[in-house]
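Pasting two entries for a bug report.
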Amino acid sequence: METKNQEEEEQLVTPWEVSAEKGGKIDYDKLIDKFGCQRLDQSLVDRVARLTGRPPHVFLRRGVFFAHRDFSDILDAYERGQKFYLYTGRGPSSEALHLGHLVPFMFTKYLQDAFKVPLVIQLTDDEKCMWKNLTVEESQRLARENAKDIIACGFDISRTFIFSDFDYVGGSFYKNMVKIAKCVTYNKVVGIFGFSGEDHIGKVSFPPVQAAPSFPSSFPHIFSSKDDLRCLIPCAIDQDPYFRMTRDVAPRIGYHKPALIESSFFPALQGETGKMSSSDPNSAIYVTDSGKDIKNKINKYAFSGGQDSVENHRKYGANLEVDIPIKYLGFFLEDDAELEHIRKEYGTGRMLTGEVKKRLIEVLTELVERHRRARAAVTEEMVDAFMAVRPLPNMFN
């Protein structure tokens, strides 16, 4: 039997907590085995390129989105002329988003544009109210602020419905929640999510809220008489437990199992032991950071795989496995050839840490500046328009 210490040192990945094994980094192969999803292989990436007629997104090409459940079924159906819809979300626990929060939205925008399909975005203001001890009003305010950052990613309003749970849950959505809840025993939910007797019942009853958007009948104003429509959920892999539960329930209540395409975590500046923390501002680059902030954080906090002296660095080269600037460039530097060149030069010691950090600062400053401009253009009226309960008549055109 494992000792308490061994258990504590094992990696932990839940929707609320992510930590690597002691001193290590997240082992994604182990996670795939544990969760029971599939690795996203090159043949699927090539297939996406073929079906959409455009180059695959950088997050697909470089394995940022690395795991899936039934993604091939979605592509099979699409090839037969059957459309699907996208569902993703955000738990609004802080006013400013960091780059890790943008990853699923940047990728979801690509999927929406490439496949020309509708999208529902859930803001779980109720969840954050229960987990983060925020007031109802503060959770609702944060949801609206976060909606502005999401809209700034460039979603198409004619195919996108953004909703907050406090505003939208009821009617058909609530009926599905009840159907789901009846199929999941207390023992099952404890097994999946690790709830304890000390957790309040709000937490135990929340999972059906996140499961319900996987079924088109939860949105009768958009998908009326389209109960057969499949759902694809792009998300970080820590959200997988919700959808394991959902997929288990789906056939029992007459729905398709939602398909998933799942990303690895965007590493903290200090290194790859887990995901970035909103509570430590120096662990992350925020979309509200100034150019000066970004420069300072990268130079001061970004963990380097370079050697301790220029002489040693020229001799041995950088350890790219642990180098955070290289990891960040892997997410956000579009040009494959340039990235390969930097990896080669830096790995052999011909390029120094300072030069790599300088290039990263340029890339991130441009990204954040572009986001800031887009967000500044989002008005309260635009938020209202995206969140209005309305049909989307041109969602598949």
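Entry 2 (this is the one that rendered wrong in the viewer):
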Amino acid sequence: MKTVLTNKNISIRTRRRALECYIEPILMYGCEAWTISKQTQKKLEATEMWFLRRMLRISWTAKKTNDTVLEEAHTTRLLISKIRKRQATFFGHVMRREKLENLVTTGMLEGKRSRGKQREKLIEGLADWLKAGKSLEAIEATKDRKKWRTMIANAVKQGT
């Protein structure tokens, strides 16, 4: 795909669409179950910028900011919001089923907690992104499909 994505004879819009069709699905495989920490988010944003810089043939030593690269590509950062949207739709699906997946996803299993700092749960990251306040509010919102979809749409509009 390198020859197609770096070809200057093809418009940037077409190259961007090729990136979205062929490479982003590979990158985002299984992202519905990821917990995205700040460090992971930075790495994903850096990967997205790396793709854009390669498409525009901008060397990493060139003193161009990410904002100028985004302007040249006529785009914005979309990868994180796409991942979060996928996570939210998957989470809503799992929560409406009310089976074993529900218990595993929410982390409400019986037993003692492990020692040390507790791992971040998927629901906590989604509640922050959806601006739902507490994770219980997000869980309750999944029961009403229309409300859940509007929450996701509003979060996507606002970005990350």
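Dev reply: Rendering is fixed now. As a check, the viewer should reflect this: The longest helix spans residues 79-97.
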